[in-house]
TrEMBL record:
Family: Belongs to the pseudouridine-5'-phosphate glycosidase family.
Residues bound to substrate: K92, V112, S146, A147, D148
Taxonomic classification: Bacteria, Pseudomonadati, Pseudomonadota, Alphaproteobacteria, Hyphomicrobiales
The EC number(s) this enzyme carries: 4.2.1.70
Gene name per UniProt: psuG
Cofactor(s) needed: Mn(2+)
Protein name according to UniProt: Pseudouridine-5'-phosphate glycosidase
Length: 307
């Protein structure tokens, strides 16, 4: 195993990613908060490994990103991925704290925002995840708006997700993205998807039907000198979805638990995901895994089209 470590920043590329960079092969970034804070073990490692394989099968190279004992990893070796999946005390690092985790030699899993920062630093243009953070319900009093949204506005990475989770205020999430000039493109549909469900009842601001068209749109933005990223929403496959009517019942229940337990800040998203997992007896996790796999496939196709 050869690792290249830069003198300035403790950064390590996996063998596979280092080789891909050298030959200019397409690379797809993957986040790690979904592994440590989004899913229980061992479902999380099964998801992470199968998602990496899907990217390889499409002719691209996966780069799961995390901070391990203060080193920023761009791509994880198999044993590192397995160890991270079993870590119970990893920090959840976003823009505010990714440098803190490195400076203080900590282990941290990167959110969408922090993964975008690391991907751009490593020259990776496409990133696949499950769902992005957004404007939380009740944000008018809590001010809880994910740093993922402002990151999309400033960092030039294409993020492929399954929409915004219905635990959020989805209309307000779309408003904030629009204010920040982030293109929101739904793949193959005119309706913006809601993570576990294909329907949100909201029209997608933009729609495109092929990876080549998405790559061409991004190239055109670059030619115009427009910086920042874009959000690709990829609806969960029909056979894996849970309808929005059914999800709303579970979400309402999870939200009332969160209120009783006075959950706030960074803990909100992981808390709601695990409550919904319990309420649906694991069915939400199956849908979550299916949609991440679906997003990895599309992200790899976009990365290949860009290369
Ligand atoms: N989507 C998932 N599971 C997750 C997340 C998203 O299916 O765990 C994580 C992502 O890392 C996202 C983060 O960036 O939740 C958003 O957290 P917050 O709302 O605290 O910004
Ligand atoms: Mn938040």
């Amino acid at each position: 195993m050869t690792k290249s470590t830069s003198q300035l920043l403790p950064i390590a590329y996996s063998t596979e990613v280092a080789a891909a960079k050298q030959r200019g092969a397409p690379i797809v970034a993957l986040e790690s908060t979904i592994i440590t804070h989004g899913m229980p073990y061992p479902g999380n490692i099964q998801m992470a490994e199968s998602v990496e394989q899907i990217i390889r099968d499409q002719g691209a190279v996966p780069a799961t990103i995390a901070v391990i004992h203060g080193t920023l990893h761009i791509g994880l070796e198999k044993h590192e991925l397995e160890a991270l999946a079993q870590t119970t005390d990893a920090m959840k690092v976003s823009r505010a704290d990714i440098a803190f985790a490195i400076a203080e030699r900590r282990t941290g899993a990167t959110t969408v925002a922090a993964t975008m920062i690391a991907a751009e630093h490593a020259g990776i243009k496409v990133f696949a995840t499950g769902g992005i953070g957004g404007v939380h319900r009740g944000a008018e009093t809590s001010f809880d708006i994910s740093a993922d949204l402002t990151e999309l506005a400033r960092t030039a990475v294409i993020v492929v997700c399954a929409g915004a989770k219905a635990i959020l205020d989805v209309p307000k999430t779309l408003e904030v993205l629009e204010t920040n000039g982030v293109p929101v493109v739904t793949f193959g549909s005119t309706e913006f998807p809601a993570f576990w469900s294909r329907a949100s009842g909201l029209k997608s601001p933009l729609s495109l039907n092929s990876p080549a068209a998405i790559a061409n749109f991004q190239s055109t933005r670059e030619q115009l000198g427009i910086d920042g990223g874009m959000l690709i929403a990829n609806p969960v496959p029909e056979e894996d979805e849970i309808s929005s009517e059914e999800m709303e019942i579970y979400i309402t229940r999870a939200l009332s638990h969160a209120e009783e337990d006075e959950i706030a800040g960074k803990a909100v998203t992981p808390y709601l995901l695990s409550k919904i997992f319990d309420i649906t007896e694991g069915r939400s996790l199956e849908t979550n895994i299916a949609l991440v796999r679906n997003n990895a496939r599309l992200a790899a196709e976009i990365a290949v089209a860009l290369a």
